[in-house]
Specification:
The chain has eight helices and 19 strands. The strands form four sheets. The chain has a six-stranded mixed β-sheet.
Amino acid sequence: MSTGISLRRTPLYDQHVALGARMVEFGGWEMPVQYSSILKEHEAVRTAAGLFDISHMGELRVRGKDAAAFLNRVLTNQIGKVGVGQSQYSLLLNEKGGVVDDLFIYAVAPSEFLLVVNASYIEEDFRLLQSLLAGEAELINESDATAALALQGPRSPAILDAWISGASAQLGHHAIRFFKSPQGPVWIARTGYTGEDGFEILCDAISASAIWKKLLEIGASHGLLPCGLGARDTLRMEVCYPLNGHELGPEISPLEAGLSIFIDLEKPEFRGRDALLKQKQAGVPRKVVALKTEPGGPPPRAGYAIHRNGKKVGVLTSGGLSPSLQTGIGLGLIETAEAVIGNSVDIEIRGKYVSATIVKKPIYRKSP
């Protein structure tokens, strides 16, 4: 693959090439977008299991007596609710209340936290957090030495247990634990970005290939497929999980993105709090909504304009074909007055208008 620019590669790059993956640029990294097809990989995660390379994401460790107090002062959520062995979703904001990055915090020991951040924002997050550091707290960037895999889907607990006996029973939802695997030490979390049950496996970069190959070997009889960024995107869109740079950004507040549950405005201080408080009191001018088009039309894409009653009211932040529903879906940032579930809108696709409906999140729901 030649892009004219130098792209970073994860420790699993050679594994992806050997499996025939189609590689693309993503946030400065050369990553697999698909191996077989996005449709097959998406279906595997919904019905069996999929294995993703997420080693491009960043890992920042914060430790010290004042680590929790520091994180509580700079992030939106209440760190005091996170016990050792648990995790929490939170956001790092700018002073205007816009999103610098969204991240997961894992409490791995008393006064020690692991932050998993988005690939495109590793250096920016580190510099910003370093500039805000205070008290007895240390910030370490472990991204280059760490690899990560995501094992997702209803068969993922069985695959995990065949690799490390009894591991899944030791991991409740949003838990994280340390294990000694046959291929080396690992931290395993039970969070996920697909709407399915699943696990994130954090390991030393040098162990990643052996773990990747072993999981694919074990998972073959369970329907496990290696999956790329294409399926990761369609899966998260179906369940309406935000993607930084799309539903989140420096000019989009988490209140507009519908993430108020992850913001504790009762805290006396965190970065961007005053701006969010003012916005909440005034009312948000726009909201991120979920959209579904009529079957058979062209799929909507990020950047397409959204109209209602002949007037432009917003823009799609994400869009594509839902493999599970076989119709176009998307997320869009639109004027609050028009952000009503059941409202019909028109998406402008290459000069033509395609009808869509604002629907309740998530767009896709598993059958009981």
